[in-house]
UniProtKB/TrEMBL annotation:
Its main location: nucleus. It is found in: Nucleus. Residues 57-66 have a biased composition (Polar residues). This is Uncharacterized protein. SUPFAM superfamilies: Homeodomain-like. InterPro entries: Homeodomain-like_sf, WH-like_DNA-bd_sf. It holds the Pfam family HTH_23. GO terms for cellular component: nucleus. Residues 50-71 are annotated as: Disordered.
């Protein structure tokens, strides 16, 4: 960890001296992406410390099948099949989605109305695609 801290300090010092990212990467023998991310983090936060990492939540249900299998002294696959087939349980992970503000919702509704008006006239059914290849069957 100490080496990484020294490496980050070296990157920041070289950057402050006007060195280009490619030069810093070549000199230190690291990727230019690592240099870029370190400089960006320094400019945003004013610190060259590592980005904080998220720790695994010990209450996560991700390990429950494994724990159940160990407790029942059966294989993980057997435990999974019992949960799925016999108990009709499904593995489910809550998916993160973008949060829409009122302005985005309003814009979405307006675009939906435009599409509904456009397709209400059934004009899309009169489109003929003429780029199809015609094959002659003569031999």
């Amino acid at each position: 960890m100490k080496q990484l801290q020294n490496l980050r300090e070296s990157i920041i010092i070289a950057h402050n001296r006007g060195k280009k990212q490619a030069e810093i990467a070549d000199f230190l023998g690291i990727s230019q992406g690592a240099v870029s991310k370190t400089i960006k983090r320094f400019e945003e936060t004013g610190s060259n410390r590592a980005k904080g990492m998220f720790k695994r939540n010990p209450n996560t249900k991700a390990n429950s099948t494994r724990k159940l299998a160990k407790k029942l002294r059966v294989s993980q696959e057997s435990a999974r099949k019992i949960l799925k087939d016999d108990l009709k349980l499904k593995p489910y992970k809550l998916q993160k989605r973008q949060k829409l503000n009122e302005e985005a919702k309003k814009k979405c509704r307006e675009r939906c109305r435009v599409l509904l008006r456009r397709f209400d006239k059934q004009s899309h059914r009169r489109i003929i695609f003429s780029d199809e290849k015609l094959f002659d069957i003569q031999q």
